[in-house]
Design a protein that fits this description.
The chain contains eight helices and five strands; from the N terminus they run αβββαααβαβααα. With 221 residues, the protein is α/β, with parallel strands linked by helices. The termini are far apart.
């Protein structure tokens, strides 16, 4: 496996547009960006982004006024299953912006800040699908996966064979975060940002998330 530092060096050398060299510089201190994509399907090689939502986190605050929210006009057809999830129809995205405009604007919003997300690897892969041919690089930002943080707080000391639920709904419930309208890219980014701050606070205080234990019924005398 190539160390992250070498990957960053490689991509910085590959960058074909010096305007975006800021991606390789540290972002503002104590700031992160939480983001989410809605897509035409779940295969980055053939599906397209139809919306991106992102919000900045500074310290312990979510900067809801500093948001990124765009509808993207896809080239790929939307699957019926995807429409059921995000409820965006072909007519809803027909007048969206071109991805060649949205991705550079997204990069300017993110800068060099670390990225936070839920199953972030997929969203990053979707962005990289467009970024690589545009700028000859992949996103170089450090990445923080909230499902991993949740696993560590709840299941890090669980015995072998324990039932593990890393679903978005389970995390919201355990952390007491009220659900927003789901499968909207910006709302998902907001909820994920709240998850991140709650999990970071639990870790700082050394608090674990309680697990339900199943005890075999005893036999009375």
């Amino acid at each position: 496996m190539i160390p992250p530092r070498l990957k960053r060096f490689y991509h910085r050398r590959r960058l074909n547009d010096p305007e975006f060299a800021f991606l390789f510089e540290p972002g503002p201190e104590d700031e992160l960006v939480c983001f989410d994509c809605e897509t035409t399907g779940l295969n980055p090689s053939r599906d397209d982004i139809i919306s991106i939502g992102a919000v900045k986190i500074r310290g312990d605050r979510i900067l809801a006024s500093e948001r990124f929210q765009r509808i993207v006009r896809p080239k790929a057809a939307m699957s019926a299953d995807a429409i059921k999830v995000h409820r965006l129809r072909a007519a809803d995205v027909a007048y969206g912006e071109g991805v060649e405009t949205v991705i550079p604007d997204f990069l300017r919003f993110v800068g060099g800040r670390p990225l936070v997300g839920y199953y972030l690897q997929f969203d990053v892969a979707m962005v990289n699908k467009y970024l690589k041919p545009m700028k000859h690089i992949k996103l170089p930002n450090p990445m923080i996966e909230v499902s991993e943080q949740y696993y560590e707080r709840k299941y890090g000391d669980a015995p072998a064979g324990s039932h593990i639920d890393l679903s978005f709904a389970a995390i919201l419930k355990d952390l007491g975060i009220p659900p927003l309208d789901a499968h909207d890219a910006f709302n998902d980014a907001m909820m994920t940002a709240m998850m991140y701050l709650a999990l970071r606070d639990l870790k700082a205080r050394g608090v674990r998330i309680a697990r339900q234990t199943h005890v075999s019924p005893g036999y009375g005398g």
